[in-house]
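Narrative summary of target 7.
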Amino acid sequence: MPADRPRIGLASNADSYLKDAVVEEVERLRAFADFSFEEFNEPSDWDEAPPQNPKANTRLIKFASGLDGLIICHGSPRITAAILDAVPRVRIIGELEGDRFARRIDVEAASARGVKAVDTTHGSSYGVSEWALAMAMIGLRNAGALFRRMVAGEAVFTGMDDRLNDPGFLKSELTGKTVGIIGVGHIGRRLLELLKPFNVKVYAHDPYVPPEIADIYDITMTSLDNVMSIPDVVICLAPITPATRGMIGKHEIGLMKPGTVFVNVSRGAIVDSEALIARLKKNDMIASLDVFEPEPVPVDSPVREMTNVFLTPHIAGVNAIGGPRFFRLMVDEMERFFSGHDTRFDLLPRTLANRSGGPVPQA
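Modeled conformation, tokenized:
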């Protein structure tokens, strides 16, 4: 083997390895690097960093000391400054999934040492963007209400009067509509690609994306109030952070014009559930909700019975196809890096501020 062939290792629990490191992607990685796996079983949480465990840290240092690239996932210890100092050969660290808030990597310590930090937690973005599009179309067609009527045994649209009074008949097509997007991260940008054939006008709100995004995607970046009040369809794609929790409250919900379709495929806690239910009771808008607060949706919640609501049980980003994509995207990143190219999914100050709800870094 060539002397400059990189050595790349994966530190995670066995479940993550079996789920994510599918055979064909491991073989693709081994085509340009020596690959090894080491099992770790540190506590894994969506919001908190793994607690420090000196024994696990020592074992990770031993595993990573001969590596050029380190991939981590659930079960791995947190990559701290001390660990980075002990493994100076490592030039890139990648988090596979679950590191939405960069809890398993001290990104500042990595940056200070010239170590690239990337993650591919957006591997689920593909499915979420698809479902956001589908939910918007379902809402515009009033398909949830029509389904309820049909399964209840009702003969639907037997006369033109019934059809003429249906919101789905009046709104119907997505083509040419105005769409509001809250959050223009990986999911939002993929959704923008999917929306291109529909010739929609897009208003978007996201304080964390660079301003050139507007020109690249030919969209209008604007305030949250404008995104809520102008479009025919409003789609929430924002991450849940201290800054976004409850961000869409009574005021914002009240801004939606009659006939608006509201889609939420991000997190239920971003929306004030009681305020949304109160607006839905007016029956002048439609909601397509993949997420709700709390989850699961309480059995006695009025949202379950509302004919102007289409519900799914948080399915947008969780599927058998999406899981292995995390590792495939990471192999792509490792191949770019060790071929001398720029990586795509860097953990940058802007990225971290978005995930924590912190202030937008100044250029």
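DSSP finds 16 helices and twelve strands in the chain.
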